[in-house]
What we know:
Blueprint: E1 5-13, H1 23-32, E2 36-43, H2 50-60, E3 61-68, H3 72-100, H4 109-125, E4 127-135, H5 144-159, E5 165-172, E6 180-187, H6 190-196, H7 208-220, E7 228-229
Amino acid sequence: MFEMSIRQIIVVTDGKSNVGGNPADAAYLANKKGITVSAIGIVDDGNLSHKEIKDIANWGGGVYDIIYSDEFIKSLSAITQKSAEKTIYKTLDSELMRLIGKNIEGLHPVLRSQIIDYIDKLLDMSNLKCAILLDLSGSMKNKLKKAVNGITDLLSTFKARRGKSELCLIGFPGENNVYAKILCPFTARISDIEFCLDDIKAGGNTPTYYAIEIAASLFENEINTMRYIV
């Protein structure tokens, strides 16, 4: 079977970034490094601007969802899967074009259906490295419990995968005016992530650009120690 390693960042936020540059620019730079960036926007009253969420996903090569907080639990797992599927699809599409001069859409319907089935198998077998970026700004205080439940649900789906899964959890902002806090570095032990979920708190601004930048540097082992706390 064709071997794949999927690298992705999932941004979970309930508001517009108000510290640093445009998050879409950070998503674009991450995607240039082979990291897919997707986003979930959590709303309570329908007032969240969709543009920033869409731009993060579009420039990051990923997918996005705008949800009410009550729907978040299942949305995180769905977005993570859709993002991984998109990465696999794009990779196979490019490989087919290189080998036979046709992309997936140009194949006979029967063969195209077989490719889609193959993508489902790859999704389960591929190595998956995923950074979850959780907005911990002040406006998230009343949504943190549901966010934690959503991450817990996602962890249960990772336990069932046959491929290697590595996750990290980053909260933004961190304490003491730090852009982000690495709540748990990349680990294959799901229990490490679960343990970190017990002690997260919300407060401060929304430095989404820097959070994406820091997450991308974690994949590349290029962390700037002035911008994070472990």
